[in-house]
Amino acid sequence: MDQPQASRHYEAAALSVRAEPCAPPAPVPPAPFALPATGVLDLLQTPGAHYLKSRGIPDDLAGRCARYAPSWSGYPAVLFPARNLSGLLVGVHGRYVGQPTGPKARSSGAIVDGVFSTPGALEAPVLVITEAPIDALSLAAAGMPAVALCGTAFRPWLADHYARRTVLLAFDADDAGRSATDHWSAELRRVGAYVRAMLPGAGAKDWNDVLQANGAKALRISLAEITQGLTGQSAPPVPSAPLRVCAYDRCRATLTVGYYCEEHDPFGPAMGE
After folding, report:
1. Residue 16 predicted with pLDDT over 60
2. Residue 159 φ/ψ, nearest 5 degrees
């Protein structure tokens, strides 16, 4: 093969290689959000439990849903887990207890990739969305499971999962809450959801104000009146994920949902026992 022919041969070979499509990289599963190895405590018998009780939240409900950190960025705080639909802990929202100055709360991790959920809220026929974990706990104390956004940021993944279902928006009765209600209502209706706004009344700013002013029994009656005739369908199940190993160091338990086994979940029932 003379030199011109060889050159054309190699150029053609190079072009044929470049023309082959590259296989897309394999998706990398998100890493579980990591809490400090020490300093996160069971809530009961801590200043965090006393704080939530002073806000009208029963001990048994608070203990199931939250933990306590004596130092969360330097100050004691009640910790609320944010999880995605697969149960993965994606972040933590810390509500400071007794901090004299500065912000009331601080979040860590990818909060917008999850929500704080009271027991049964994501499986209920009607999804109830609040701003703060204390509001979700207030509604749950009155018999209405709810989730909290730890803010008002829209969650497209949550709207998609609840498309063509019933959603109650229980945001704060202030300008930010009303703006969030309008935005969420428009986006949820865009995916075919039935949406109803449920703002606290009688001068209350949020649902914890209502709980503290009227008590759980009166709030339960009020919620029953608000939701009378409201029906919905249960959310579709989350597709099973491939088997994975518990994220806790040295644990080899295999899972299909979430990233921690029950024994080692930082917010699981075994914590602190």
Report:
1. no
2. -60, -45
